[in-house]
Amino acid sequence: MSDALRLTKMYRTAAEEAFPSKIRILIGDKEISLEKVYSLRYGDNPGYPAAIFAKTPPFKELKTGKHGLSKTNFEDIYRAHLLLRNFSRRACAYMKHLNPSGVSVAQVDDIPLKQIIAEAREADSQAAFGATVGVNGRVDVEAAQELIRTYIECVAAHSFDESALSVFSGKKDLRVVQMAPLVNMTEFDLSFYPEGFATISAPYRSRIKNKSDVTIVTKRSPTEKEYDDLLFSWTVCAHVRSNAIVLGKNSCTLGIGTGQQDRVTAARLAVQKPVEMGRKERLIGAVAASDGFLPFRDTVDLLAKYGIAAIIQPGGSVRDQEVIDACDEYGVAMAFTGERCFSHF
User: Fold this and answer.
1) 23 within domain boundaries
2) What does the alpha-carbon distance between residue 128 and residue 36 come to, in Å, rounded to a whole number?
3) Which residues pair with 246 in a beta bridge?
4) pLDDT by residue (tens digit) across 49-60?
5) pTM of the prediction?
């Protein structure tokens, strides 16, 4: 076998696992008992076994491919639906490496799902290649046809029409998953480390639900449309690896800067994709969300240069006034949330 064929096969070969059928976790006087419900193809990388444990199976695999889901596939599905459960209207998230590359939410109830899917994909069509796609509703045949226009690894939704499943049947490697709505079972996050220790923490629950939950600190207040986009972008930003900047307009992401060690670089990456794809004009009148405070005015200077009209951020920097003054210079509205939404998954 040639090296090229061997490497290709590696990504399709399931790693044999021998994990126990049950695990029990005792926290204080509370015992959590979980059963093995799915043997994953492999963990973060080929050759490393992995499995899912749960009280009840969190999903049903309606169509398999590539010898099943990998750990990254499952975590993308999980994080997509963790994000999508925040929206009452139809919504779609394209996920890559646990981060959304594009998210779109219907602005009115009668928008077809296929349009929402197309908007989420085209928010970053380059990153959407090979994505896992989450949908917070029922996938019909038109939505299925839209989904397979480009290569995707998995699609996970609450339900599927039979005609949609027929569309997917022609895609050998595509995995189709029926995902139950996520329900909180505990009030803590538990992480184990192979070196023999663990952390327990309270999960983040944003209190930012409507415009009355934020404080406007600039001379100009956001318009009603900007308020809607600020709240949408803040919700998405809470599900992006820090440091994160999310640009949004019309309940759809335009650019996402993720996982940077400094904030202005996250902002630069967020504007880079739409500019490179010839969509610079779409940034005019868009909004930005930052998961942490802006330590300097440089992020405002950059975003205003591209026409960003409003910004939502926690506030709390020693240079808040400098940042607010920069917004006032450009006529940019700014909202403080009074809470941070860092995510270091």
Assistant:
1) no
2) 31
3) 256, 289
4) 999 999 999 999
5) 0.96
